[in-house]
Hints:
The chain is mainly alpha-helical. Helices cover 57% and strands 5% of the residues.
Amino acid sequence: MSIKHGLLALLDQGPRYGYQLRAEFESRTGSTWPLNVGQVYTTLGRLDRDGLVVPDGEDGEGHVFYRITDEGRRELQEWFDEPVSRAGRPRDELAIKLAMAVAVPGVDVTAVVQTQRAHTLRALQDYTRLKVRAAEDDLAWQLVLESLVFQAEAEVRWLDHCEARLARRDVVPPAAEPLPTAPPPGEAAAQDGPPKRGRIRRGKR
């Protein structure tokens, strides 16, 4: 997820300081994508540099508040309006692992698939339990959980597909026996010699 745009979305609801932004970001996403304060303040510094936020005073404890600018709101609206590019998403480590495993001699690729499936099924069960316990009015957390559930279900289906492909690859068809070829006309007779004269039974007159 874009931390930059996530923070802008929170600041669009009012000025906040770093620790507040971190806590609210993790609360909205159920700590699925945990942040550290260093990430938050580094991102705020870049947003300030780019004119998307500005400092907006301090509280009694010295916390610096940040406020979104009009330029920041335009940037946020563009983020909401545009689809998320699949080309820009992080590399899929599991797909890379399996692609490498099938090419490396001695790796039991089926075992790799089965280990991953067991792990993903456990995660799917955890997500499902969390979804059952999620508060009905916490729509943000429910949407995140549903995304995780659908991703896990899709991964299990893909792993099933991978295992089926591996099984087909590992099945070696039995060698077919060559079919007998008919000799050219006349050659069979030459090879077998002249036809034997059969005994003719004569009937009684």
